[in-house]
Specification:
The complex is a heterodimer of chains A (376) and B (355). With 376 residues, chain A is α/β, with parallel strands linked by helices. Helix content of chain A is 37%, strand content 16%. Chain A has 15 helices and 13 strands. In chain B, helix 6 runs antiparallel to helix 9. Classes of the chains: A alpha/beta (376), B alpha+beta (355).
Chain lengths: 376, 355
């Protein structure tokens, strides 16, 4: 397949792996402990498992699977609120597919659907708006999820609804923003990260400027990375070279998609429609200041939280869950005491088992061949 | 069985309305008209014609095919009813024929039970019945008994079909999921995931257009050729819901063996690959309706491939992997990129990813 297969070339991969091994051999800390590199984005985690990259890398490199899976970090209380809205008889509740399975404290959206709620899977917020046009006697609610990647499409849908004067469309806004969360992770005392693979699609919208503090203030290399396996290997190689050379910079491996200045029209739509919340709850990480957005007052009539009474109760993560420690790289997914037995993709307890982009689900589904070889 | 009196066309009821109503499920003349006009006339065969409450099968005739009876049943629900490459009628025949054939049986007779939602257009029903009849004829099976129910609007989604089939297994064939041995070669008879992708596209809610057609096909002919060439086939299973990943896991578990497949050798249509790339789906888990996973001893692999490729439904047959000595029950894939990953059973259904 054109423009895809080129980025999955095995010979180029082998050459890159050799280069990576060479750079690793020139890094002093690698002799004392593993080099910890966090891939921030769930899309990266998925590719790493999908192509078996962990097993190809030198053993000195540990990949830490970061918090960038928006479905995974959705807290239980917000799922409960979504279910409460979905269960109203007048509501058609629309959502991206992989959010259907996220467990709330009582049930998931999939279970609510089985119980009679009108929950429908859509592929874009514009599909939800089309449903609103087609069903003027129903209230169509879109479950807005995701980082800056999906924020603009939701914002543009709100602007479109406003332009058309559509009154039966609202957004249940759970959009979140990655930078405050990265800062929270970097401030965590039990953290030992040597560098980052930065989110590719988020950066396509935001540009690379928001990450400069990571290089400047925290002194960590940061490489914005694409999602194909060669993208990821090349980005790892770029991070390693920075470590070897004692540099800490923001570099852009994904330049074919990401421009340093970002996408101005998308950013303008985001700016116009949303404002930062004081704090937002993340599954596994707890409440993080300024990490979520909500609709501005001017768009309040499109805000599902204002149109419908919602329980709005914060539900603590199960005490047994160690998602936070996995997210911060303090333990590996399979070291969690719940992994596999009581927490699995069928009955996920914690955030990271929910979506195939979550570190634990990816481990469960695609398996840590490297880990198994190590154990054997 | 020699004294069957064939029904003459004038004895058959005729349906004069355009849509099915609850009256057609009432057991009276309206129901007889529906059954006669739509189903009996399309399925037409000597065993069905007496219209007794049961088909009566001659044991001697069955026994000429082999020494064991194979017996299977399957329910068919699909949205939409008509899709590129097939329809629910064709599916209901092929699926049950294939379930018999993969056990090494010659499929012979089917039953057909339909549940119809009131309001269905009679013409749609006719098209489905004709499709069933044509598919059955081509597969060499007869539909010998059946049942028709009509339920109120909303109690089912347009039409549900259940077919049950019997076939006879030839002496000497021993095909089973517990029979794979390390060193065996894993074959498939063509490109994977076409049916699943075609159905998802045909639903239209993804606004994706794709030329992908369902691979829905009766494989009894192909399997007959394969078994004639290689009677020692160890395992065969059609890779329907859950895709080949599921079948490989079933084989690995039952045989207490490891299975290794090679991504580069796994045949997937470019259109299906593109579709999966966009939606974040894995083609290994997409449904097929005309594809089988086969395990054969290494010395039989060449003959098996040649037999498959000589048949139109096996033209793209290839070896995708092997049974190995690793962890029992584990399926792994050597990725196109040179890595290795585990191919586990699918949990629930595949859901498109957010971004």
């Amino acid at each position: 397949m054109k423009y895809v297969d080129e980025f999955r070339d095995r010979e180029k991969a082998e050459a890159l792996i050799r280069e990576i091994a060479l750079v690793v051999s020139q890094i002093d800390i690698a002799r004392a402990r593993p080099i910890n590199i966090m891939e921030v984005c769930g899309g990266h985690t998925h590719s790493i498992f999908r192509y078996g990259l962990e097993g190809m890398l030198p053993k000195e490199i540990e990949l830490i699977h970061g918090p960038g899976c928006p479905v995974c970090v959705l807290p239980m209380g917000r799922v409960d609120d979504g279910v409460a809205i979905a269960e109203r008889p007048e509501v058609i509740f629309t959502t991206f597919g992989d959010a259907m399975r996220v467990p709330g404290s009582r049930k998931s959206l999939m279970q609510a659907k089985a119980g009679g709620a009108d929950v429908r899977m859509v592929y874009s917020p514009m599909d939800a708006l089309a449903l609103a046009r087609k069903n003027p006697d129903r209230e169509v609610v879109f479950f807005g999820l995701g980082f800056e990647t999906t924020m603009p499409s939701t914002a543009l849908t709100i602007l479109q609804a406003e332009a058309e004067g559509i009154r039966n469309f609202t957004l249940f806004c759970n959009h979140i923003t990655i930078v405050p969360t990265m800062k929270a992770i970097l401030d965590s005392p039990d953290l030992q990260l040597d560098g980052f693979l930065g989110p590719g699609h988020v950066s396509m919208v935001t540009g690379t400027a928001p990450y400069h503090f990571i290089a400047r203030h925290y002194g960590r290399p940061f490489v914005v990375a694409g999602f194909e396996p060669l993208d990821i290997l090349q980005s790892i190689w770029m991070v390693l070279k920075q470590i070897r050379d004692g540099r800490a910079e923001v570099e852009n491996q994904y330049a074919r998609i990401v421009h340093d200045e970002g996408n101005a029209p998308a950013l303008a739509a985001v700016e116009r429609v949303y404002e930062l919340r004081e704090f937002f709850e993340w599954r596994g990480l707890g409440s993080i200041d300024h990490s979520g957005v909500r609709l501005r007052e001017a768009y309040a009539r499109f805000d599902a939280e204002k149109r419908f009474a919602i329980p709005n109760v914060t539900i603590a993560d199960p005490a047994s869950c160690q998602c936070g420690e996995v997210l911060k790289g303090a333990i590996k997914p399979w070291q969690c005491r719940m992994f596999g037995a009581s927490c699995n993709p069928e009955t996920p307890l914690g955030a990271l088992m929910v979506s195939s982009e979550g570190a634990c689900a990816a481990h469960y589904q695609y398996g840590g061949v490297k880990r198994q070889q190590g154990a054997a | 069985m020699g004294s069957v009196t064939r029904l003459k066309p004038r004895d058959l009821g005729r349906l004069m309305v355009s849509h099915v109503t609850l009256a057609h499920g009432g057991g009276g003349k309206a129901m007889k008209d529906l059954i006669d006009d739509v189903f009996v006339s399309a399925f037409d065969n000597d065993l069905l014609a007496p219209l007794e409450d049961q088909a009566r099968l001659d044991l001697g005739a069955l026994a000429r095919h082999g020494d064991r009876l194979a017996f299977t049943t399957d329910g068919y629900v699909v949205d939409p009813l008509f899709f590129p490459g097939g329809d629910i009628g064709k599916l209901a025949i092929c699926g049950t024929v294939n379930d018999l054939a993969v056990g090494g049986a010659v499929p012979l007779h089917l039953s057909c039970a339909v549940v119809i939602e009131e309001g269905m257009a009679v013409e749609t029903l006719r098209v489905i019945a004709r499709s069933m009849a044509e598919t059955a004829r081509a597969a060499g099976v007869t539909i010998v008994t059946g049942d028709t129910k009509v339920v109120p609007r909303g109690a089912c989604d347009k039409i549900f079909i259940t077919t049950t089939g019997i076939g006879v297994i030839r002496q000497g064939l021993e095909i089973g999921a517990d029979r794979a041995r390390p060193g065996d070669i894993i074959l498939v008879n063509g490109r994977l995931g076409d049916h699943g992708a075609a159905i998802l596209c045909a639903r239209g809610d993804m606004a994706l257009e794709s030329p992908v057609r369902s691979d829905c096909a009766a494989l009894s002919g192909l399997i007959g050729e394969l078994l004639a060439a290689v009677p020692g086939v160890r395992f065969m299973r059609d890779a329907t819901r859950g895709g080949i990943a599921t079948v490989l896991n079933e084989l690995a578990a039952a045989s207490r063996a490891a299975i290794e497949i090679d991504e580069t050798a796994t045949p997937i249509d470019e259109g299906v690959r593109g579709f999966c790339e966009i939606l974040g789906l894995d083609p290994l888990y997409l449904a097929n309706e005309g594809k089988i996973v086969i395990a054969v001893a290494p010395e039989d692999a060449a003959a098996a491939l040649a037999a498959l490729r000589a048949h139109p439904l096996g033209r793209d047959a290839c070896a995708i992997g092997r049974v190995a000595t690793g962890e029992a029950g584990r399926v792994t894939m050597n990725t196109i990129f040179g890595g290795r990953r585990i191919v586990d059973m699918l949990v629930g259904e595949q859901l498109p990813r957010i971004c």
